[in-house]
Amino acid sequence: MFSALLIEKAEAGQSISLTEVDQARLPDGNVTLEVAYSTLNYKDALAITGKSPIVRKYPMIPGIDLAGVVTESTHASWSPGDRAVLNGWGVGESHWGGLAQRARLDGDWLIPLPETLTTRQAMAIGTAGYTAALCVEALLNHGVRPDQGEVLVTGATGGVGSVAIALLAARGFTVAAATGKTTEAEYLHGLGAATVVDRAELGERGKALQKERWAGVVDAVGSHTLANACAQTRYGGAVAACGLAQGMDFAGTVAPFILRGVTLYGIDSVMAPRHRRIAAWSRLADDLKPEALESITREVGLSEAIDAARQLISGAVRGRIVVDVNR
Questions:
Q1: What backbone phi and psi angles, to 5 degrees, belong to 216?
Q2: Which of 22, 220, 232, 254 is 20 to 30 A from residue 81's alpha carbon, by CA?
Q3: Locate the Enoyl reductase (ER) domain: which residues (predicted)?
Q4: Which of 323, 281, 263, 294 lies closest to 142 in space, CA to CA?
Q5: Alpha carbon distance 130, 87 (integer Å)
Q6: 125: exposed, middle or buried (Cβ count in 10 Å: 0-12, 13-18, 19+)
C-alpha cells in the first residue's frame, strides 16, 4: 500500500482525497519508482480542483511531475537505484501521476536526474522551471544576446516567470519582469530582474506595431499581453510563448513578423523530444543558482497539497510549490 491523492468521479461530480492505494492497482509500465517529491503546477491545480477538464479518465492520481528512485525495471535504460525525473507525457491526465509515493511509468518518458540536483530541487524546478528552460534555450538558439537589449518575462512571479528570470540573469541578460503583483518587486529583483513592469501596460489591446523595446520575450500569459510583447519586440528578435494565464486568444497582427522579422516560438513541454528535455535540464543544473531556487520554493506535504492547489488557482501563490509525498 502507498499514500496518494486520488481523483474519482461519480454522478455528483469529481472528488479528491488522500487515500491508501494497493500497489497492484498501479497502471502498466516498465519502470516502477519510489517517488521522493512531486510538485504543483497550474495544470495540477486545475485537475485537483476540477476547474478545467484536465483529467482524461478516472480514477486518476494527479501530478504531471515527479522525481524519485527506480525500484523495478524491465526497460533497458533503467536499473534499480537510478534517479529519474519525469515531466509531462500525459501523466496526471491519462496515466497515474506523481502525487503519490509510488509510480509505474514508461521508461521512455523518464530522463536521468542531473547529478548536481537533488530530487527536491528537481521538483522545485518542475514542469514550470523546465518550461522556462525550454523558452530560454529557444531565445539563445535564435541568437538573442545580452548586448542586444532587455529581455521581457511576463507572469514574472509565477513558476515559469521566476525561473526564467533567474536563468536569464545568470546568462548576463538585463531582464524586465512584468507582473500584476507590483508589491513583489523586491522578490523579482532578488531573482535578477533589473526592472519591474506593471502588467497593465501590456494587458489591453494595443497597436499592431509599437516602440521597439525587447530583444527577446518569455511569455507565460498569452492574449493581449503576448500580442503587445510581439509588437514591442526589436527587429530580428524572438518571443517564446508557453502559457495562457490571460487567455488562449492572440489578438495580434502579422506586422511584427513581416515588418520586423520577429520570430514567435511555441514552447511545448508535454511532448518535447528527449534531446530537448536533456538540454533544458542541463541548462537548469548549470545556470540555476541553488539560493535563487530556494527563494522561490515553498514545501508542503501530500496531505496539504489539495489546499495548496486551491491557493494556486486563486492567484495566492508565488514561485513554486514542492510536495513531499512522504509526509
A1: -160, 165
A2: 22
A3: 13-323
A4: 263
A5: 8
A6: buried
DSSP for residue 100: B
Q: How many angstroms separate the CA atoms of 216 and 31, rounded?
A: 40
Q: What is the pTM of this model?
A: 0.91
What pLDDT tens digit does each residue of the chain (327 aa) get?
A: 999 999 999 887 899 999 999 999 999 999 999 999 999 998 999 999 998 889 999 999 999 999 999 999 999 999 999 999 999 999 999 999 999 999 999 999 999 999 999 999 999 999 999 999 999 999 999 999 999 999 999 999 998 999 999 999 999 999 999 999 888 999 999 999 999 999 999 999 999 999 999 999 999 999 999 999 999 999 999 999 999 989 999 989 999 999 999 999 999 999 999 999 999 999 999 999 999 899 989 999 999 999 999 999 888 888 899 999 999
Task: Count CB-CB contacts under 10 A for residue 272.
Answer: 18
